[in-house]
Design goal:
Distance between the termini: 22 Å
Structural class: mainly alpha
Number of strands: 2
Shape: elongated
Number of helices: 7
Low-confidence stretches: none
Radius of gyration: 23 Å
Length: about 180
């Protein structure tokens, strides 16, 4: 603990270890700002979408459980896996812990999930006529849109934080 005389004279070198520890802790976290309600709402939309039809009359939960037969294609099952793992799981943990590394993982996972959602939609349309569901399930469309919006939210938070960290490490930056 530094003495009061050096702190009063403006010498903060005695606090350098404490300040470095605080800086390390802060650089591992991100700030939601006004995006927090949007991210949490999109996570809730994904949860609700799992209980809506995705392949014919089969809900997303049922398709994940193995139902759907020929109408539940591999891209649809992969998309639903990405929804559960990255859209709901990793996004929730990242939102609660505010860890920057988890926000990167959520961004990459939701972006890949969006691509698998596009493939799932196309694969539903390319099934043979006799096994094709009556249409793309509303749950698939809602989950696909929510994954796209969630990926955009995570990308904007992640890249803004990357710019702050890059500026912090720039030569000539005040320390």
């Amino acid at each position: 603990m530094p003495d009061d005389v050096s702190a009063q004279s403006g010498d903060l070198s005695a606090y350098e270890d404490d300040l470095s520890a605080i800086e390390r802790r802060v650089t591992r976290e991100f700030s939601f700002g006004r995006r927090r309600p949007v991210v949490l709402t999109l996570i809730a939309v994904l949860v609700v979408a799992l209980f809506l039809p995705h392949a014919g009359s089969h809900t997303g939960i049922a398709v994940l459980g193995g139902a759907g037969g020929a109408t539940a294609t591999v891209p649809l099952r992969l998309f639903l896996g990405f929804v559960v793992v990255f859209g709901i799981g990793v996004s929730t943990v990242a939102a609660v812990t505010r860890r920057w590394a988890l926000s990167w993982l959520a961004m990459i996972g939701t972006a890949m999930g969006f691509v698998f959602g596009l493939l799932a939609r196309w694969s539903q349309q390319s099934l043979p006529v006799e096994s094709r569901p009556s249409g793309t399930g509303i749950g698939l469309l809602i989950a696909w849109a929510a994954m796209a919006l969630l990926a955009i939210q995570w990308a904007s938070m992640t890249w803004s934080r990357a710019n702050v960290m890059q500026a912090r490490r720039a030569p000539g930056a005040d320390r």
